[in-house]
Design brief:
Blueprint: H1 3-12, H2 16-26, H3 38-48, H4 52-60, H5 64-73, H6 81-88, H7 94-103, H8 111-118, H9 124-140, H10 146-150, H11 152-159, H12 165-178, H13 183-197, H14 202-215
Length: about 230
């Protein structure tokens, strides 16, 4: 599908009331937004199919929803580090950050490297991107043993005192997702959450309490991905 046709379709879906609604309801504030819901972009993405060249053109258009669409039609196996670095610095809200991290970055061969790198970044949404990839990678990687995911716990604990809303929410999200990979990581995540609870930080205490509420509740939904049993 040619670029001009896609841009035309996006403008046909334009709705300024949705721009205001998303800002008020979901705190999604974006530059050059047309006001198109995610579900409508998913329909368009399915119609287009995967197309790396078009995805890059759409991102470079500067239109917010075109950038969201880019995250849905670029092939994860083809993403490069220069592209990831080019895109991550433009993230202006949680929606576009999570769209790229969940749908694209977490499925790329650079996922682990970017978790390590970006969780140390200063920018709020670059740091969130590191933890969003971490959270999504817990579901994207169905083969790795517990050891791989245990290396994330020190990172989570290190950054748990970050008071910024979209950072602490992503840290909490990552901790919960690790704890839902299997029963053994659930036990370990609960231990780590209790350690975080002892930190002298409102953010850390919120992250820990919220994670414990979910990870300890009866009937918590949990996967059974490969694991190495912990010794008593």
């Amino acid at each position: 599908m040619i670029y001009n046709k896609v841009i035309e379709q996006l403008y046909e879906l334009k709705d300024e009331e949705k721009v205001a609604f998303k800002a008020k309801k979901y705190a999604i504030v974006s530059n050059n937004s047309l006001g198109i819901y995610h579900k409508d972009l998913k329909v368009l993405a399915k119609e287009i199919g995967q197309d790396n060249e078009l995805a890059i053109q759409l991102f470079d258009s500067g239109i917010y929803e075109a950038r969201l669409l880019c995250s849905k039609i670029f092939k994860p196996k083809d993403v490069t580090e220069p592209l990831m670095e080019k895109w991550v610095v433009t993230f202006e809200n949680w929606e576009i950050c999570d769209s790229f991290c969940m749908g694209l970055f977490a499925k790329s061969k650079f996922a682990l490297a970017k978790i390590i790198d970006w969780t140390e970044r200063e920018s709020e949404f670059e740091k969130r991107a590191g933890f969003a990839i971490m959270a999504a990678y817990c579901m994207a990687d169905k083969k790795s043993d517990n050891d791989l995911f245990e290396q994330f716990f020190p990172i989570i604990k290190r950054e748990a005192s970050d008071e910024r809303l979209y950072v602490k929410k992503a840290i909490n999200w990552a901790l919960r997702n690790i704890g839902k990979r299997n029963v053994d990581l659930n036990k370990k995540a609960i231990e780590v959450a209790k350690e975080i609870l002892e930190l002298d930080s409102k953010s850390a205490k919120w992250i820990a309490k919220d994670a414990l509420t979910e990870l300890q509740k009866e009937g918590v939904r949990m996967s059974d991905y490969p694991r190495v049993q912990y010794r008593p």
